[in-house]
Amino acid sequence: MSARTLPLLFLNLGGEMLYILDQRLRAQSIPGEKARKVMNDIISTMFNRKFMEELFKPQDLYSKKALNQASMDKLYDLMTMAFKYQVLLCPRPRDILLVTFNHLDAIKDFISNSPGILNQVDETFRRLIETYNPLSDGEFQLIRQTLLIFFQDMHIRVSIFLKDKVQNSNGRFVLPTSGPVPWGTEVPGLIRIFNHKGVEVKRAEFTTAGNYVTPQREGSFELYGDRVLKLGTNMYSVTRPVETHMSGSSKDLASQAKENIAPNPLAKEELNFLARLLGGLDIQKPAGGESGFRLNLFTTDEEEEHAAQTRPEELSYKVINIEATQEPARRAELSRILGELDVAEPRPGSAEKGEDLLALMDGL
Amino acid sequence: MPYRRQRSLALRCSSSALYNNLAVLCPPRGAAAAFGAVHGSSLSLLPGEGPARQLQARGGGSALSTPLLTQAAWCELPSRVLLVLTSQRGVQVRLGGPGGPWGALGAHSVFARGIAAAGGRFICVGTSFGAVLVFDIPPKGTNVTLSEVLEQHRDPITDIAAEQGQAPDGAGDLVTADDCGTLCLWSSGEEFTLLGKIPGSGCTCSSVALWNGIVAAGYGNGQIRLWEAGSGRIRAQLSAHARWIYALDLAPLTGKLLSGAEDSFVHVWKLSRDPDTDDIEVQHCHAECVTDTQVCGARFCDPAGDTFAVTGYDLSEILCYGPA
User: Fold this and answer.
1) Cβ neighbours of residue A143 under 8 Å, at least 6 residues apart?
2) ipTM for this prediction
3) Which domain holds residue A41?
4) Which of A186, A264, B20, B41 is the most buried (most CB within 10 A)?
5) A1 is a domain residue
6) Residue A49 is assigned to a structural domain of this protein
7) Nearest-CA distance from B210 to chain A in Å?
8) Strand partners, B215
9) Residue A83 lies in a domain
């Protein structure tokens, strides 16, 4: 399948993660200066130049698994279901790029007073345009199909989607049969007949239950411009809190998980890097110091513990070592860079910041 | 003739979003049909008789990285019926009946996709670098040989189809399609001959069928185009679907055409020729919305096209439709 999937997966999930973080910062009235510092730090680390260089090299996605915890699971649920929705609904396979641009546009808006960090993001933006704009529609469809295999069988219910009526109570997304058709597609309903010389001789119409219209215009695939498509923009706000419903009881989930004889070989590898960005979690803690901050998407520790116990092991998101199949050396390089970034994470004052964010996430 | 949903068959795993992701083996009168749909690196199998099963793709690498399957199809040759799987590493053929031995064929491409039986003794398989591999299948035994490599496509192969009716003189009996919409027409035999090439416009042709010298091709922009196989001229253009088409199938006895797409619709059309003008006629017979499902596989279950089956992304079912 496509070896060009990893950068899109990382950037879009990273974008969703930043939306959630931003929503928490604002919902909890974190002082502006501190909030801006947190966002700048995380974006700067995400868009590290050496990491991006490795990320953009063609590679397959595989992962090794290790245990993680309930809050991380919940964050992953939100990020992955949001991106699954975007990949599933994007009108043409190529529009995955517009979804990614929407995330990057929003990330740039999160950066305050730091031309350096803005430059880092723009550099990734240009790399993205250079790498992906020339690809054919067929290659984009292969990327999309690879992503859909990655997200297959995930049916977690997300309250914001349920409220917006874009997700059904069984966890499946609603597919509209009305509205604009994709750019370059005609509204269904016309049959044209040509004679043996290739000259049109007859037209006939047919009706379907769909109620489509012609699209207004195509979104911009340039560094700056109107993307037209809304998928991938920020759906959270202070009044639209971040929460998930687990679909069904944990017992159902466990039996569902066992049904899958073949575990999904495409794994959630770079999510581990995003996890490290959000703080210590259960990754190694620097000796003698506070471990960044701890993310908690539950109201209380008890609730988090309960969620961890009731969530079947098989459904827990796992942490990662990068296992690109073709070139072990490159895989090692990406791991090394990730390691360096991780080591660089604890900074002076991180203890204080850690406590802030702990409180912040506890407020959910 | 209208259709309605008659039953739903449970699969062990859901279907992946891949072109032509439904294999159907129509048995002789009376017996139950067998179904298969790809789920990641395995095939969800519903044999005509017996319980649902899951077939794993064969390794070809470390246990950690089982190859993802791209397609599955039963190839019906006069002497035997073979189950063929394509994956991101190559081709696998089940050479015996259920539980029989598997053979791995030419596995040097990035991935293989597009499967068809042709010329009574060949199986053709497409690859991501555009080549079509032609395998010579003995009437029995496991001595499968690579008889030819057809190198006319410059883009990844998407689908391959053999003539389902009667090929007019010089029209060829095999069509191959690729990622940029290029179609090649071949006549099969000891040596395959290229008879014509219909250049693509850049829009992917994801599924193709061939019937009485008419090529039916489904595209990424939701269109179905009918081409004259002999002349390579366009004979009909259908604005059929609102999104990417994933599957086409043809009923050889009646010329019914089935199309399924990401827009959650399945359509049944009827193709015919006006005996006076030789013009192709197209009639829209039926539209079916499979609610909230991006259709990835659709096939008729009988040669007259009275029944058909559908599956979709993330759906652990095969939906069967028949006369209303």
Assistant:
1) A2, A4, A5, A8, A93, A96, A135
2) 0.95
3) 6-362
4) B20
5) no
6) yes
7) 17
8) B210, B227
9) yes
